[in-house]
Amino acid sequence: MNRDMLCRIAEALERISPAPAEAPDFACADAFVWHAAPDRLAPVARVNRVDLTLLQGIDRARDTLLTNTRHFAQGLPANNALLWGARGMGKSSLVKAIHAAICAEGHALKIVEVQREDLPSIGRLLTLLRAAPGQRFILFCDDLSFSHDDQHYKSLKAVLDGGIEGRPENVVFYATSNRRHLMPRDMIENERSTAITPSEAVEEKVSLSDRFGLWLGFHPCSQDEYLAMIRGYCDAHGIAMDDAVLRAEAIEWQATRGARSGRVAWQFFTDLAARRGVRI
User: Domain AAA+ ATPase: where (predicted)?
Assistant: First the structure.
């Protein structure tokens, strides 16, 4: 067997079973993205987020999550959190804004984004974070949900509170989802109708969401809250506009979209800022 053949075999073995990921320099950034195959933590130089004060209509969820995150950053016990509910109401924006607010208070807190597709590798990520001295991490998974044939949820159970090692003391898990139980209703009902023991099949599926200590619900906003969001964006970016004119244009925009949410409010403001020649 020649040398080239041996090199090719060695490279193939490394691809099948790569070497453990090396810990990055956590001092270089406050935010990271986890990538699998090969495993690595990529630093994020600039996080896409809005200021916490600009998030309107979600006061209870904001205060609860802020307190939980502050406790965690201080080394106190904290719960994993599931932010669920109406689309476009600021679930992921709230997580990123609270991370920035806690960092601004002087706490050394990192946020690591994990894609749903990479959940099977999350055990290796936890091993990496567990060994990081003096660091505390929010694991963040945006738009988390599972289909009827998706087994990724089993990988997540050990992160939340299962397994022999359990969740590392320096890690907390925040997830957002449009579904309270992370799985579509028809999937749960199908399990109930076809299983030999229906209640046990359903319990297996919904037990994942039960592992989150905090359930924070997000609901469609009222028209007043929608207008308050837009006025807050205008004030923050120095756009002066008559209230009556702003109200009329914002309501017309909402009517054309057939929806009212924080995302729609931001989309209207983006259009308004462009028409006024304001960079955001």
Answer: 77-203
